[in-house]
Write a structure and sequence with these properties.
CATH class of the largest domain: Alpha Beta
Strand content: 15-25%
CATH superfamily of the largest domain: Alanine racemase
Function: Specifically catalyzes the decarboxylation of meso-diaminopimelate (meso-DAP) to L-lysine.
InterPro entries: Ala_racemase/Decarboxylase_C, DAP_deCOOHase_LysA, De-COase2_CS, De-COase2_N, Orn/DAP/Arg_de-COase, PLP-binding_barrel
Active site: 383
Pfam family, one: Orn_Arg_deC_N
Radius of gyration: 24 Å
CATH architecture of the largest domain: Alpha-Beta Barrel
Helix content: 25-40%
Number of helices: 12
Modified residues (N6-(pyridoxal phosphate)lysine): 90
Length: 462
């Protein structure tokens, strides 16, 4: 029997099973209903499309919460010290997503004033909010410290701004600072998402740390609470994370020489997810055990007290919880070469294929059991030859009006979306136990021109 969309449900039919969400292609609640339609969060995807239109981001609340819970509970099991999981919200930052992860006890990692403002408006506790970024403005840093958030200093510019603001006494409390450095650890991932090697725009080089720690020790308004290092994203290897623990604890002992008693370490994130059936990432549990064992062993070796341990997963929390639904439009057959199937979205709602050559899988949501007999190329509608979502996909016979669902689109799809070709950004909905709620409204044409301004001299008189 030929494969159908059902093959992707084999590991996704029971939300209570022990495999972690990052090891699933579809959300944990995905199943096929009696109408042979894909169902997520108790909602028929074709009915969702009828109600909300396409393209449509569909976020399964159960999958998102399960990922948060598995991270939080795994750290409690494996780390004998205090820990805090931060959601790396650059993967998808909006009010609803921030509110959900905060309600699960997680903190938030933000990388801009906009992400910070959104997190605070969503009710994320400031003491659990950490501001990153390699080119923070004074205004962004000031927003963070006025709200008593922690600032992760990435470079000398950050430190000088922080020192200046502390001397101006714009706040009546010490400014909490962490130091980000490049640990010099390579991992096998896309070149653009490797951040731990020495040739990186992020973080201080290890050779600068003596000068950095000396500078901070001379700033009474700054309290350096710890260090941060991150080795990359979409990583399937565990060894680099094990190596990172020893590098980080070595750095803490160096800070002691300058009278700094650092109590926190942030080992970053980077755990990969399944985008295709051939992907085999470690589970959340396996990843947590490796990083916690690494820190514990390094502390024992260096006779250093266990620090508060932070991590900041993003993709592995949100990625598998979301799918994107499209409506099929035109088709083009190039004899002897390929068949193009066009959908009503593309690179403006998912720029990862054209940016990173990322691979995805797709199902026909209104015919889940139909055999996949047709090799096709799934094309977007943008005026760009490279706007290809999936090359050489396997699908059933597809007709105009069919509903296609691309899997694992929660991470860096909405957050990197654009208005290229003046397409309006899609709506996003949250599904749970048969209920569907809009968490991001679909943009209208009026929204597209809402910030445009037409000088009076350019106005055409009738």
């Amino acid at each position: 029997m030929q494969n159908s969309g059902l093959q992707y449900l084999s590991a996704s039919t029971d939300a209570s099973e022990t495999r972690s969400p990052n090891q699933h292609l579809l959300p944990l609640t995905a199943k096929v209903n009696p109408q042979d339609h894909l169902e997520i969060g108790g909602c028929d995807v074709t009915a969702l499309v009828e109600q909300f239109g396409t393209p449509l981001y569909i976020v399964d609340e159960t999958t998102l919460r399960t990922a948060c819970q598995q991270y939080r509970e795994a750290f409690k099991r494996h780390y004998p010290g205090e820990s805090l999981v931060l959601y790396a919200s650059k993967a998808w930052n909006c009010l609803a997503i921030c509110a959900i992860v905060a309600s699960e006890g997680l903190g938030i990692d933000v990388v801009s004033g906009g992400e910070l403002y959104t997190a605070l408006q969503a009710g994320v506790p400031p003491q659990k909010t950490y501001l990153h970024g390699n080119n923070k403005s004074s205004e962004e840093i000031q927003l963070a410290i006025e709200n008593e958030c922690t600032v992760v200093a990435d470079n000398w510019s950050d430190l000088k701004i922080l020192a200046q603001l502390s001397q101006q006494s714009i706040v009546d409390h010490p400014i909490r600072v962490m130091i980000r450095f490049t640990p010099g650890i390579e991992c096998h991932t896309h070149e653009y998402i490797r951040t731990g090697h020495l040739d990186s725009k992020f973080g201080f080089d290890p050779g600068q740390l003596d000068e950095v720690f000396q500078f901070i020790s001379q700033q009474p308004g700054l309290v350096c609470i710890g260090v941060h290092a991150h080795i990359g994203s979409q990583i399937f290897e565990l060894q680099p994370h094990e190596d990172l623990g020893y590098v980080i604890i070595d750095t803490l002992t160096k800070a002691n020489q300058y009278g700094l008693n650092l109590s926190e370490v942030n080992i970053g994130g980077g755990l990969g997810i399944c985008y295709t059936e051939s992907d085999d990432p470690p589970s959340i549990e396996e990843w947590v055990k490796i990083v916690t064992d690494s820190i514990v062993n390094a502390c024992q070796q260096k006779q250093y007290p266990l620090p508060r341990l932070l991590c900041e997963p993003g993709r592995s929390i949100i990625g598998s919880s979301c799918v994107t639904a499209y409506t099929v439009g035109s088709q083009k057959q190039v004899p002897g070469i390929r068949t193009y199937i066009a959908v009503d979205g593309g690179m403006s709602d998912n720029p990862r294929p054209i940016t990173y050559q990322s691979l995805y899988r797709v199902v026909l949501a209104n015919q889940m059991s139909a055999p996949m007999t047709e090799p096709v190329t799934l094309a977007g509608k943008h005026c760009e030859s490279g706007d290809i979502l999936i090359k050489d996909a396997q699908l059933p016979k597809v007709e105009s009006g069919d509903i296609l669902v691309v899997m694992a689109t929660g991470a860096y799809n909405y957050s990197m979306a654009s208005n290229y070709n003046r397409l309006s950004k899609p709506a996003a909905i949250l599904v749970n136990d048969g209920d569907a709620n809009v968490i991001i409204e679909r943009e209208s044409y009026q929204d597209l021109i809402g910030k445009d301004r037409l000088p009076e001299r350019l106005t055409l008189n009738p």
